């Protein structure tokens, strides 16, 4: 049986802010690795038994979000973007597939599948979602303060006549 948790509107917005901050961190990491041509190395052998290193570039990361019981959201996991790497012909690059490998892609350098334009748009969207959640928190705080002010006034605890009531002893 799933336990339900009642979250306040501030808790729900805070979870959204937390998720968007994590998303912005992920986008920043993607942008930092836009030119990382060697995040993983693999030693291979040619047909004649010589070894060479095959470099695998950085793979773009994406956030997967899920709803939280009782309200809110969280980043459940980070997955690799399945998009293909960009290939550039540059045999002089230190991470190019060596000519001696005999691979059909010899002389190619594989670049990360990170597109700075997509990452920038994703960063802007995450930033705006964060700001919307922050605005919701501010509105909830203002509504709570106004509700307390109304309750205090209805009970005769209004700031205008607190001193008067104390002096006269009236309820």
In short:
The chain is 41% helix and 20% strand. The chain is an alpha+beta fold.
User: Kindly, what is the distance between the CA atoms of the first and last residues, rounded to a whole number of angstroms?
Assistant: 50 Å
Given the C-alpha coordinates, what overall shape results?
rod-shaped
Mean pLDDT: 87
Strand order of the largest sheet: 1-2
Q: What is the number of strand segments?
A: 6
Structure description:
The chain has about 170 residues and is α+β, with helices and mostly antiparallel strands. The chain is built from three helices and six strands. It has a two-stranded antiparallel sheet. Helix 1 runs antiparallel to helix 2. The protein is rod-shaped, with a radius of gyration of 29 Å. The model has no long low-confidence stretch (mean pLDDT about 85).
Supply database-style keywords.
171 residues, alpha+beta, two-stranded antiparallel sheet, 3 helices, 41% helix
Question: What's the arrangement of secondary structure elements?
Answer:
Elements: H1 9-32, E1 40-45, E2 51-56, E3 61-67, E4 73-80, E5 86-89, E6 108-111, H2 116-154, H3 162-168
Antiparallel strand pairs: 1-2, 3-4, 5-6
């Amino acid at each position: 049986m799933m336990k339900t948790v009642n979250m306040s509107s501030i808790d729900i917005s805070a979870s959204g802010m937390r998720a968007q901050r994590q998303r912005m961190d992920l986008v920043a990491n993607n942008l930092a690795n836009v030119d990382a041509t060697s995040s993983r190395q693999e030693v291979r052998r040619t047909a004649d038994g010589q070894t060479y290193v095959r470099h695998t570039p950085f793979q773009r990361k994406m956030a997967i979000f899920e709803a939280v019981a009782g309200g809110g959201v969280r980043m459940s996991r980070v997955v690799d973007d399945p998009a293909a790497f960009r290939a550039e012909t540059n045999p002089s690059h230190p991470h190019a597939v060596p000519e001696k490998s005999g691979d059909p892609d010899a002389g190619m350098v594989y670049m990360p599948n990170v597109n700075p334009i997509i990452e920038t748009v994703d960063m802007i969207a995450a930033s705006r979602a964060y700001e919307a959640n922050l605005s919701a928190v501010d509105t909830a705080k203002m509504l709570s303060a106004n509700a307390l002010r109304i309750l205090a006034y209805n009970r005769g605890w209004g700031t205008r006549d607190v001193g008067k009531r104390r002096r006269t002893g009236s309820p």
